[in-house]
Each structure stands twice: as structure tokens, then as C-alpha cells.
Amino acid sequence: MSRFTVAELRERVDRIFYFDVSSGRSYESLIDALALLPRAKQDFALHWAAVAAQTHLEIGYLVILQAAEALRRMAPAAAEGWVISALDAYDASGIRAAVARLRDIDGFLAASGEPGSRLSLAAVEGRLARFLQGLSGRPLRVAAGEVPWTDTETVFVPSGIDAGSPEASLAAYKAIVGLLWGQTRFGTFNADLEAAFTQAAGEPSGERHDRARNWFPALEALRLTACVARQLPGLGRDMAVLTADLPTDLPGVREDLARPEATVAASLDWLSRLLDRAPPPGGLRGEVRPVAAGRVRSERIGRDTEILRKAIAGLMAALGRQGAGDDTMDIALETGSLEVELSVDGQVVSLPPEGRAAAESLVQDLGLIPPECMTPAGPGEWKPTDRQDPGPTATMETHADALYDEWDARRGAYRRQWCHLYLHRVAPGDPAFVVDVRQRHQPLIRQLRRRFEALRGEDRILRRQPDGDDLDLDALVAAIGDRRGGAEPGERLFLRRSRTERSLAAAFLVDMSGSTKGWVNEAEREALVMLCEALEMLDDRYGIWGFSGWTRTRCDLYSIKDFDEAYDDRVRGRIAAMEARDYTRMGPPIRHLTRLLARQPARHRLLVNLSDGRPDDFGDEYRGHYGVEDTRQALLEARQAGVRAYCVTIDRHGADYLKRMYGPAAYTVLDDVRKLPLKVADIYRKLTS
After folding, report:
1. Residue 273: partners with Cβ closer than 8 Å, 6 or more residues away
2. Dihedrals φ, ψ of 552, to 5°?
3. Which residue intervals of 367-469 are DSSP H helices?
4. In CATH terms, is domain 402-451+502-688 a member of 3.40.50.150?
5. For residue range 305-358, what is the model confidence (pLDDT) as tens digits?
6. What are φ and ψ of residue 165, in 5° steps?
7. Rounded to an integer, what distance in angstroms lies between the CA atom of residue 561 and that of residue 543?
8. The pLDDT of residue 672
9. Could you state, in order of their start, the residue ranges of all structural domains in the chain?
10. Rounded to an integer, what distance in angstroms lies between the CA atom of residue 557 and that of residue 509?
11. Of 618, 621, 675, nearest to 649 (Cα)?
């Protein structure tokens, strides 16, 4: 393909910078820089200049000027990262930082390594998070850090790894997160590490104390690699790379720490014997920070203990027991598993999902369920404390409750911590609204309740069981016939009733933008009242949030009903108080609810969005393609986290963009807002049955 002519280049450059009419700058230098490049490099420079110019004209200008040098020294894929890093610098610190980043090609190359061999955390962050979720059964955040370490709720890993190839770099990332997960799973923090370092060194600080701190991660890496390899051989092989550099002349260390019964005490026991030797460099093994990990771990154990005790209290109340008394409550752990089985007087009972998740979390942290966790708390039903109402409405001058990345499809990359999300609790409104909706729609509410009641499930009769509630007459007759015929009768002579347990958490995200003012807002509120009245027939965990906002610096999420709240007068009052507010920036609330749903102890997670139109915000940037692509990316992140998303809209033109955002089978366009209550309930029923 032939290169562009000077006239063609001038036309394309003018198209990129046509709105820069007041600067008086000449773009002939850009034409000169582009004219001598091959066509592929011309295309690269023009494309990324157009992308960058939408953020700031000066960045686009410099992209063209520097493109020839950048492409001479790196592959196109790496050069894309060079431009994106400049745009990230602009987002974080302004135009001066972006210009400095573009001009410092040497610095970029030094930080990024050879093209094609360095793997960035941004490229695998979601994959690593899902990998950790599968390992631990509970969410673990992945974040960039100067060295690898964990506080037991977040694993900090390098922002990039160059192991010679993308495959080797990914394996190194998996090895690091496997090691950091193993520190929580296999008891690294079950000892007072700071005291142990002091005892081994014989001093609270100094060179020997530092050696103890540096030797410990290496010793634990040997032990944890062996622990992981026994359960997950593939991951164990990857983790072996982390200990390959350790000295081979350590008699007995590797063998001792590889024993199945070796605990963190074994690693600490070796510290005093090795302090005369210089510790190996930490490298990808990172370091251990006992104080930070201890604080986070202690808070989680306290929280899980309280949840488990309240769950047991609820079970005791359901069984007609007033307290522990003389009941025998044994926790049995299946070998090689975190699953928990609770028995009361030898009768196996099922913990509710919240209690089971808390028990499994305690097993991960402590290796067992402490006896004090088995004491029922409170008089009965498990009712978590309601979250306290926040103070006055947040403004742009206050600190955001959360910062979220935003997908820029033009860059093909995230704008890091770009959106400021503020969490609010809606003040209760007129209680007469809910009473009026109940009265006017009583027949429809009864119809919805009948539909949802069918989802509760009925007892299934399991025949030919070795034990059960009643005799299986068919099996008994067959056994008598076998016996009279001289054959050995079967032993499975009982019936047992089994109820399929629903395990689902649903979040309803309601559009509270200014365009819903009037009859749309009225219909949304009525639909929520009727939906809640029907959902109370089930035991599903569900919550309701409204969203609005004004630019990326003020994205508002309004809590109507949290997952752990009962549908009571307070919630009804908040539904009545929902009102139209500002704009429709969908990405941040979707990402926040995805995070909340991921924490719910349920097998299935559902996000339903009620909206009257496409993503929109003040100004021109978020409208159109940019907002649709960011929302689509947020929904893809939700899917990767195991959350199913569905949209119900009254925008008759919604098919133009909803198919792109949700997929062809995950949205419904209503032609009549009066159908909203029944349609929402029908969709929920289909998605959860």
C-alpha cells in the first residue's frame, strides 16, 4: 500500500486539528514528519493522534512528532502502550506530565522492557481476580504494588512482569498470587510474626532482625509451595519457580518444610539457624507485612464470627432450642475441602448461605472453627445490623466513597480511577404512596405473588434411600419378593424428602436521571413496590439502588434497600422518595454493584437495570459511542465476575444500542410503561427459575 501524499496528509491532519483555530500554530511540521514514513507508520501516527487529540490537542500534536522515533525503537503494540501511558499521565496529573511521558521514550522503554515479553497487570488483572476467586471461594482484590505482599484481602503484585514471553509472564503472575493466597490459606499469619522475628534475632531491630524478616518469606515460599502442590499440582509447579534461586546447600530445610504436617512454626524454627547467612533477594516472593495483614485479618475474623454465631442462633430457634444447652454441635470438615457440615445432636442441618460463607472463611483463616464461634448469639433470627446512614449529601469537594476505572474505547484502555462514586441513603418519603399502590394494584400484586410462590420449590421425594423419614413401600415389596425367592433383599427401603435450596442474590439498579421525571419515575416506583411485595414470597437476597450523577467527578448511587435489610417501612419510605435527578453515567454504578454482588454468598448473582434511555452525562464526551462502550465494558466485567445482567427499558430506540451493551437476548424494550411491573417480575422469574 503506497504512502499518503502531502495533500492527503494535510487533509487528514486538518481533520484531526480542525477545531484548533485560535492557536495560530502551523501544522506543516507534522506533514513533514509524516511524509517520509511508510504507510503503516503513517496510519499508526494518524490514528493515535486522532485518539489523543480528543483528550488534548497538544498530546495529539506530539504523538505525530514523536511517532517516527517511537516506531523505530519499538513494535507497534508497545508504541500503543506509549501513547496510552501519556494519556493516563494526563488523566492523573495534567498536560505537563503527558508531554514529559511522550518525550521520554527511553524512560518508557526502561519501565516496560522488551516489546512482546513484558506482561502488564492491566492486561491480566481480571483473569487473576477470577483465578483467586476460584482458589479461595471469596473475593480477593488484585492491585499493583512495589513488591508482592498481601493484607489477606488484597494481593499486591508488580504492575508488569517480563519473564521472557507472555506465557511465562502469566505463569509468574499466577505463581505470585498463588503464593500470596497460600499465606492466608495455610496459616502464615497464625503466629505473632513480629514477636517471632525479635525472638529469633535476639533484638527488636537491627541487622539480625532485618535478616529474619528477609529469610522468612523464602522459608514460607518453600513450605507453601509444597502445601499447594499437594492439592493443586499444576499451580505447585508454577510456584516452584519462586524458590529456584534459593541456596541448595541448606541441609534439611527443603525436606522439613515439605512435610504435610509442617506449619508456620516450622518456618520460624529455621530462622535462628539461618541468621548467620545473608538472606536471598526477595524478588517475586515479595515480603510479609504482619501488622497490616493482622489488622485486616482480625477485623474479618471478628465479622465472620459474629455472622456465624447469629446464623447458628437462627437455626437453634428454628429447631425449637433456646440456646446451646446440652446440644452437641460438631463441625466436620471434609478432607481437602473447605466445606462445613453442622450437626445438632447428630442431626445434620444446613447453615444459611451467610453463615456457611462465614464458616468457610473462618476455616481459611484459622484452619478450624474455634469453639467460641459455635455459641449462638442473640435470641434468634439472623439479622445483620443495618448500615448507618451517611451524613449530608456528598459534593465534589468531599472525598469519594469509591474510585472506578472507565473504559475509553478510543484508546482501547482504561482511564484509571477516573470516576468518583458517592454513596447516599435516600431519606424516607410519603408512606401513603406505598399504601396507595397496594390498594390500586391489589389484584396484580396477588397475581405476582402466585407466580413467585411457584418458585419456592416443593419437597422432592427420594426413593430407595438407606435411611429416611418413611418406608418406601415399593422397595419394601420388592425386598420381600427377593427374600421369598431366595435372593438377598436390598437395604434401600426408605423415603427421604429433599428441598432444592435457592441460592441467589439480585440487585435492581434504577435510573434516577432527569429524563425519568414525571410518569416514568412514577412507574418505576410502582414497579418496585409490587416487585418487593412479590419477592417477599422467596428467600432470595435482593437489594435496590438508584443512580444518577453529573460528570465523572460526581457519580451518585442511592441505597434504597441493601441485601441484608428487611422490606420494612423504612425501605417503603425510600421507594416513595425516589425522584428524578441528573444524568445517566451507567459505568460506575454497574461496577460498584458488581463488586457488592461478588461478595454475596450465593451461587447465582443477577443485576437488573431499569432505565429509560442510553448512557448520558453532562457535556459531549460520555454521550454516544463513548458511553455505550464504557457501559458495555462494565457489563463484560460483571459477566467475568459471575454476574448476569439484564436491562428493561422504555426507550423505543433502545435496540440500537442495547444489543451492543447487553447482547441480543439480555434486554427488553417496552412500548407501554404500564407493563413495567408485570414485565420486571416476569423477567426475574424466568432468569431465576
Report:
1. none
2. -70, -20
3. 432-440, 442-453
4. no
5. 888 877 777 766 665 554 444 344 444 434 344 556 666 655 566 667 677 778
6. -160, 160
7. 5
8. 61
9. 6-112, 120-288, 292-374, 402-451+502-688, 459-499
10. 9
11. 675
CA 366 to chain centre: 24
Amino acid sitting at position 9: L
332: cell is 466436620
- And the C-alpha cell for 214? 528477609
Q: What is the pLDDT of residue 318?
A: 60
Rounded Cα distance between 444 and 442, Å, is 5
H or E segment at 570? Answer: helix 569-577
The Cα 622–Cα 419 span in angstroms is 12
The DSSP 8-state label assigned to residue 504 in this structure reads: E
In this prediction, the residues of the chain whose per-residue pLDDT falls under 70 are 19-26, 112-118, 137, 315-351, 353, 371-372, 374-398, 453-460, 497-502, 619-620, 651-656, 664-665, 671-677, 680-681, 684-689
- pLDDT for 483-505, tens place per residue? 888 888 888 888 876 655 567 88
| CA separation for the pair 188, 195 (Å, rounded) | 14
Mapped to the 3 state alphabet, what secondary structure does 462-479 carry? EEEECCCCEECHHHHHHH
The number of CA neighbours under 13 Å toward the Cβ of 212 is 23
Q: What is the pLDDT of residues 427-443, one digit of tens each?
A: 888 888 888 888 888 88
Residue 392's pLDDT is 34
Neighbouring residues of 280: CB distance < 8 A, sequence distance ≥ 6: 214, 218, 245, 246, 247
Q: Using CA atoms, how far apart are residues 616 and 287, in angstroms rounded to an integer?
A: 45
Amino acid identity at 513: S
Which residues are CB-contacts of 61 (< 8 A; sequence separation ≥ 6)?
17, 25, 27, 30, 49, 53
Q: 3-class DSSP state for residue 262?
A: coil
What grid cell was written down for 19?
Answer: 477545531
User: In this predicted structure, what is the pLDDT of residue 161?
Assistant: 84
Q: In the beta sheet, which residues pair with residue 497?
A: 461
Mention every residue, 6+ apart, whose C-beta is less than 8 A from residue 93. Answer: none
Residue of 41, 40, 31, 44 lying closest to 5 (CA atoms): 31
Q: What is the CA radius of gyration of the chain?
A: 30
**C-alpha grid cell, residue 18:** 480542525
State the pLDDT at residue 228.
Answer: 92
SS3 150: strand
Q: Given this model, what pLDDT does residue 422 score? A: 93
- The number of beta carbons lying within 10 Å of the beta carbon of residue 334 is 9
- pTM of the entire predicted model: 0.56
For residues 476 and 667, give the distance between their C-alpha atoms in angstroms, rounded to a whole number: 52
At a CB cut-off of 8 Å and minimum separation 6, what does 251 contact? Answer: none
Per-residue pLDDT at 348:
61
- The DSSP call for residue 616 is B
Q: How open is the CA angle 347-603-684, to the nearest 5 degrees?
A: 115
Place of cell 411485595: 533
Judged by DSSP in three states, 123 sits in helix
Q: What residue has cell string 442462633?
A: 313
* CA atoms of 62 and 561, how far apart (whole Å): 50
- How many Cα atoms within 13 Å fall on the side-chain side of residue 282? 16
DSSP strand E in 409-566: where? 413-425, 459-465, 470-471, 494-499, 504-511, 541-549, 555-561
Between CA 177 and CA 163 the distance in angstroms is 16
Supply 255's cell numbers.
525436606
Q: Report DSSP letters for 99-116, one per residue.
A: HHHHH-HHHHHHHH-STT
pLDDT at 42 (0 to 100): 92
Angle 121-136/625-640 helices, nearest 10 degrees? 30
- What is the separation of C-alpha 372 from the centre of its chain, rounded to a whole number of angstroms? 31
